[in-house]
Amino acid sequence: MSRASKRLTLIRPGRRSQIGRQDSKRKRPPGRIRQLAEALLLLAGGMGLLLALMRLPERLDTLLLVSNAIANLIGGLSKLGLGLLQLLGVLVLVGVVLLALAFLAGGLVRLARALLRPKPTATPSPR
User: Fold this and answer.
1) How many CB atoms lie within 10 A of CB 41?
2) What CA–CA distance (Å, rounded) separates 113 from 37?
3) Which of 9-18, 81-90, 108-117 has the lowest mean pLDDT?
4) Which of 60, 99, 112, 113 has its CA 20 to 30 A from that of 74?
5) Coil, strand or helix at 96
6) CA distance 103 to 97
7) DSSP string, 3-69
8) Who's near 56: CB < 8 A, 6+ residues apart?
9) Contact (Cβ atoms closer than 8 angstroms) between residue 15 and residue 7
10) DSSP 8-state secondary structure symbol assigned to residue 23
11) 46 secondary structure, DSSP code
């Protein structure tokens, strides 16, 4: 191998590398016929969808569908709100239980300290 092929080549952004570019060909833009065919297919698809949507009210009561969807949405949101309120109530109840247990533990510790503390001896205080 020659010394030039072992050399490290840095590729800078914005510049095209010369390594491996000799074999690659530039991609040609699509031809005019292909562009026309794609445009006609897109137009036909759009028109077909619009015609299908225009026929939809004949087969389906759209106003009833929309009103049912809105009613279900409101019902779902109210159930969600009720569920969140119930969960909040449970969390408040758990907090009150934990507070009561903390009060009981604190009271028991203070009672044990008061009962187990040795009696103070009567020593005259120096004046």
Assistant:
1) 10
2) 93
3) 9-18
4) 60
5) helix
6) 10
7) TTTTS-----TTS--STTTTTPPPPPPPPHHHHHHHHHHHHHHHHHHHHHHHHHHHHS-HHHHHHHH
8) 62
9) no
10) T
11) H
